[in-house]
User: Fold Alkyl hydroperoxide reductase AhpD from Chelatococcus asaccharovorans.
Amino acid sequence: MSIDTLKSQIPDFAKDVRLNLSSMGGDESLTPAQKYGLFVACGIASRNAVVRKALVAEAAAHLDEATMAAAKAAAAIMGMNNVYYRFVHLAGNKDYKTLPAKLRMNVIGNPGVPKLDFELWSLAVSAINGCGMCIDAHEDVLRKGGVTTEAIQTAVRFAAIIQSAALAVEAADVA
Assistant:
């Protein structure tokens, strides 16, 4: 399966989603590792098997094993962190901010790929999962690392497109 196969599964009522998937596939503003790592991390974060399979298959030809594993790790670790830190941020009891998280997250410190690539993927997954604390933290690291506003915006745009593709595929099955 590929992006083209995925586009063929997007119904006509979501034509804009198909067009956005096309533009995402042709985007050359990020490095291949950044771009295809986003496909993997956000495809997994979409929680839609059709989207995940299509984007992981598309990325497989462009990523080595270590980069593929790191993109999967970004989705997994943000799945945990986004729940926890969204709770800490939203809870009325501010004492939670003073407590240690007690969550293992060693992969963030040693992802096996360039740190800024991993941060970009983590930011995009955090946007899908709606964790403001994580969005702020990852965007701060990226900005301090010299990543441009445009690259950060592109990563989040990819996340938005991928999430909308998952919703369109699911909506196609609604009677």
User: Anything to note?
Assistant: The domain at 3-172 is CATH 1.20.1290.10 (AhpD-like).
